[in-house]
Design brief:
Helix content: 10-25%
Strand order of the largest sheet: 1-3-5-8-9-7
Number of domains: 2
Order of helices and strands: HHHHEEEEEEEEE
Distance between the termini: 74 Å
């Protein structure tokens, strides 16, 4: 009798397990790059017993994938053309790459700013006389580009700096660029059309 009850319970467990949806555990779906390298090389696990190897079978699915199968599925889940554009790129260690920044210095009376090849371009200005910073076209149409301005007034005497170009401001009100001696003004701008238009004060 006990044997029959055990067999019935085992059969019920098997049916419920087999009928469950295929769910890959999160720690398998998102394996770190270092573990991926280990699995792909089929190297001997460094932490025995219980280490990982590429031919380990993932249990609980309707098929019997190995860990290397899961890794390959994860690798092919993102189109290569999307990397760095709609999804973050990875560095050699498998970490997400930081947005790239270019830092440029404007001449003392201002100049023209525009998006560059990097995600963000920071322009710094220590004005020597009244001037204008003009916003013009650059590269990166179809991609988000950030322009940052840091205007540092001389400690001895401040001078007025104006901003010009196709800039849209929140509620139509442009921020004030301080002309007080020693003051600092920081403003961020966004463009998605290569600098044809800008949104200021983001």
């Amino acid at each position: 009798m006990k044997k029959m009850l055990f067999l019935a319970a085992s059969a019920a467990f098997f049916v419920s397990w087999a009928g469950a949806a295929d769910v890959v555990p999160n720690h398998v779906q998102h394996l770190p790059h270092s573990v991926k390298s280990l699995l792909k090389s089929n190297a001997v696990p460094t932490h025995a017993p219980g280490g990982l190897a590429g031919d380990n079978i993932v249990m609980g699915l309707s098929w019997a994938p190995s860990l290397i199968d899961i890794v390959n599925l994860a690798d092919y889940s993102v189109q290569q053309a999307d990397i760095g554009a709609t999804v973050a790129g990875l560095n050699g260690s498998g970490g997400v790459t930081s947005p790239s920044v270019t830092v440029l210095t404007l001449p003392g009376t201002g100049g023209t700013v525009s998006p560059s090849d990097t995600d963000t371009t920071l322009y710094t200005l220590t004005p020597s006389a009244a001037g204008t910073i003009a916003f013009g076209p650059g590269v990166g149409a179809g991609h988000q580009k950030i322009i940052e301005l840091l205007i540092v007034q001389p400690a001895s005497s401040g001078v007025p700096i104006e901003l010009s170009g196709p800039i849209s401001w929140p509620n139509g009100a442009a921020p004030i660029v301080s002309s007080m001696p020693g003051d600092r003004t920081f403003i961020r701008f966004l463009t998605t059309d290569g600098g044809q238009t800008y949104i200021g004060g983001i």
